[in-house]
Amino acid sequence: MAKRKINIRLSDFPNSTYVFIVAFVLASVIVPNFFTPGNITTMLTQACVMMILSTAMSMCLMMGCIDLSLGGMVSMTGVIIAILLKNGVHAGIAILAGIVSGTAFGMFNGFVVTKMKVPPFIATFGASGIAQSIANTISQERTISWEQGSHVKLVNLLGSNILTVYFGPRPAQILSISALLLITVIIIAIVLVLFKKTTLGSNVYALGANEETARLSGIDNVKWKVGIYALSGFLASLAGMIVMIRTNSLQPTVGDGLEFQAVVAAVLGGNSMKGGKGSVPGAVLGALTLYTVRNAMSLWGIDTSVVMVVIGCILVFGMMLNQVVNSLAEKRKLYRRAEGREA
Question: Where are the domains of the chain?
């Protein structure tokens, strides 16, 4: 039996792969204490939320839509879980309530976009304000914390480390893998399997490339759009849960600006704002790139406002990079067609 030759080209990897490698290497060389086990642990744990949100944003962009309510949903679902914990509700029930509310809110977004024909940008931008207002109202704009007890054992378990490796006695020499990071990896892996092994991926790409053509080929546009927005809400609620567990309390404005960072991560990962192109792994690597930059600048003592300027520049750079890559790919296609005609 002849072995099939597998050709792997550099162009097969998402754009964010190379940006992440360059950013990580530069930060490791230039920034003191960046490449230490303790700092890598901190960076990966902090990046969990953005990796999940960038996955949600990536699917929406590939579908030709956008979800600007992600940040608001993180705040809303996180507050719902935290309030229930504060009132003595079992952690499992509280987390389930947060997830259900986030998924339902995502379905509401899909309904507004598909049935009421509101442009996704406007619909989800407005929904973000609604979700954030709900978070502010039920929390009374105060940080929420809860008493320790048997009802929060699940929260404590999810907030613990599942693996710790000691390279020395100092905190900077300790590498830890948290349960939250494991949960994040499992969630992303499930989404990737669904993309590869079911019709999810092909249908999302088809909707983003040409919605009318997708409809004529038998794809139920309404069902799939509502479903993707529901999945986006589900992922946002998981991100809200992770924020709440990681900080062991919750501020009602915790989701402010997260949707913008998710767009940056997704675009940096090769996702087109026009739809029909992109990848989930690229968005995840884009999120890791963002947190590499944020972490390095934080260790350097650079002000947060400057960090946001840099993130904005990364968004512009990502869009320019996508344009260059797409142009080169188009030229290669034309060149191959020309060669085929000559032959």
Answer: 10-342
Residue 160 DSSP symbol: S
Q: Which residue type, as a one-letter code, is found at position 191? A: V
Predicted confidence (pLDDT) per residue in 198-237, tens digit: 999 899 999 998 988 998 888 999 999 999 999 999 999 9
Which CATH number applies to 10-342? 1.10.3470
**Alpha-carbon separation of residue 263 from 61, 64, 158, 219, 341 (angstroms):** 9, 13, 28, 26, 41
Q: Which residue would you say has higher pLDDT here, 172 or 85? A: 85
Tokens at 287, concatenated: 């999120």
Number of Cα atoms under 13 Å in the Cβ half of residue 259: 26
Q: Quick one: tokens of 2?
A: 């002849």
Rounded to an integer, what distance in angstroms lies between the CA atom of residue 156 and that of residue 114? 40
Residue 164 — φ and ψ, nearest 5°?
A: -135, 125
Longest dimension (CA), the chain: 76
Provide the 3-class DSSP secondary structure of residue 121: helix
